[in-house]
From TrEMBL:
Pfam families: UQ_con. Residues 1-18 form the signal peptide. It comes from Ambrosia artemisiifolia. This is UBC core domain-containing protein. Heterodimer with UBC35 or UBC36. InterPro entries: UBC, UBQ-conjugating_enzyme/RWD. PROSITE patterns: UBC_2.
Length: 186
């Protein structure tokens, strides 16, 4: 399923690339590989950018999540490969060193509504955790108490959210908080 989506994305982006080849090459008959999300974001004249459709953006994030980019302590992927709207995602964070979270594995749910990435996803811990930005009854990460969600920008990603949550675990206000027993869930 993901291969066919990636192929569709590549074909669509190749088509887009055909119309914009003058930006990347003076030889208009030269076919180049499909553009990545970051290339599309910088495509345009005079510093203007192209707004990438929601599903293309999510496909790019899915590809990054599948490749395991980063240090391997955060990961994410779709809950249901048949969800054509790509709304429901699962994230995992391995707790940071030198904190009460060290060695623990935290599971999260991220929900990208139809207005993502213009607005942030809803983020909720499935694993019980005690953090200042997490609602103690529901596990929801409260946007007002978590900087990246409170100051959301279109270019932020689900990976950025997970990395910031891991950093928040290691922050002075959270790194020594007593935690619920490991393996308990909201």
């Amino acid at each position: 399923f993901f291969s066919s989506l990636s192929l569709s994305l590549s074909l669509s982006l190749s088509h887009t690339h055909t119309h914009t080849s003058c930006v990347r090459s003076n030889r208009s008959n030269n076919r180049k590989p499909a553009l990545s999300y970051s290339e599309l974001m910088t495509l345009g004249s005079g510093g203007s950018s192209v707004v990438v459709p929601r599903n293309f953006r999510l496909l790019e994030e899915l590809e990054r999540g599948e490749k395991g980019i980063g240090d391997g302590t955060v990961s994410y992927g779709m809950d249901d490969g048949d969800d054509i709207y790509m709304r429901s995602w699962t994230g995992t964070i391995i707790g940071p060193h030198n904190s009460v979270h060290e060695g623990r594995i935290y599971q999260l749910k991220l929900f990208c509504d139809k207005d993502y990435p213009e607005k942030p996803p809803t983020v909720r811990f499935h694993s019980r955790v005690n953090m200042t930005c997490v609602n103690h009854e529901t596990g929801v990460v409260e946007a007002k108490k978590f900087g990246i969600l409170a100051n959301w920008q279109r270019e932020y990603t689900m990976e950025d959210i997970l990395i910031q949550l891991k950093k928040e675990m290691a922050a002075p206000q959270n790194r020594k908080l007593v935690q619920p027993p490991e393996g308990t869930f909201f």
